[in-house]
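Table 4 source record.
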Amino acid sequence: MVAFRGLLLLCCLHVGVALEGQAVCAGGAGTDQVAAAAGLNLTNKIAIVTGGDGDLGRVIVQAFALQKATVIIATHNLEKGTKAAEEIASKTGGDVRAMKLDLASFASVRKFAGNFLKKFDGKLHYLINNAGLGGIGFSSLTEDGYELTFQVNYLGHFLLSELLLPALRKERPSRIVNVASTAHVLACQAMNWGIAIPPSATCMKDWQRHLPLRRRITGTQPWYPHYFRPGQSKTIYGVTKLLQIEHAAELAKREQGSGPEVYSICPGLINGGLGPEVEALCNEQWINPPGVFRQSPCPYTPQVGAAVIAFAALHSHSEMNGKWLVRNRDCDVKAPFLSGFPSDQQSTLYESSLAWAGLKSGNFSDKLSMLV
């Protein structure tokens, strides 16, 4: 199994303007620099970074630790996470710890949340939903009966956020940041619903016919760009990233004025664990339709890519609440491509997700995906 823990992936649609990020993130500013520019002393503040032992995650953990926050690396591999925590603590002098979290298991998510709230007296200021699976080359069902990538990237983080909302509400101002991707534009292609790239893709207009995903994704398909790696195994990564964007937008509306601010972000292509695939995508970005993906330099270092996470978490920009912030335009707000998803159904998707995660009753949890 190939796991992509918070390194991913593509960058951003080029619509809209937000000037705040340009001043802070301009010139290839790194994560530590952007975090320091907030001018905050995070002593007694607590942050959770899921997948904080990966390439991108380690950078954001370090940035929080340098600003004196207590940082929890939530990791499926406790040995790896503990080692990363010790190394970052030694480097920064900060309080960095690791705790076990398997996003593929609702029981594990509930256990993590319970242990965390008990250990830290119900306090939390920052939740960075950074961990993720690419799902390339594999697919299976979780113990809860959902497709693995769907649960790890979306439902697991959805449940975690819900369970930790009381702590985030209590410690306002607080933030939730979902690490998404421009790979969300590939939602239709990834699910074999049709043409992926705007303006043709409208697969999500009838999303209730297809979600939740409770069958293993099988078969192969051409991937985008099609001549880069033909026959690559199917993955629903793009779908999960679109759902993370929709989750942030709806949660921000629900928590307006009483809970945390919520953002989704795009770190860009990172020179981490994807190796040759990242280089190929960078070299071939000229074939993308205008406005879909342009990044320079390409790839970013994790320090540069993760800067947009630090910006979303630590800088004051309440008018951006619920928006999608992207790195390759200096942390500006961009309009995501929704693949036909009706914005007036964000609340319905949210209520459905509560049922899928076992937080409310409903007939959604028994529905099988049509996509096999």
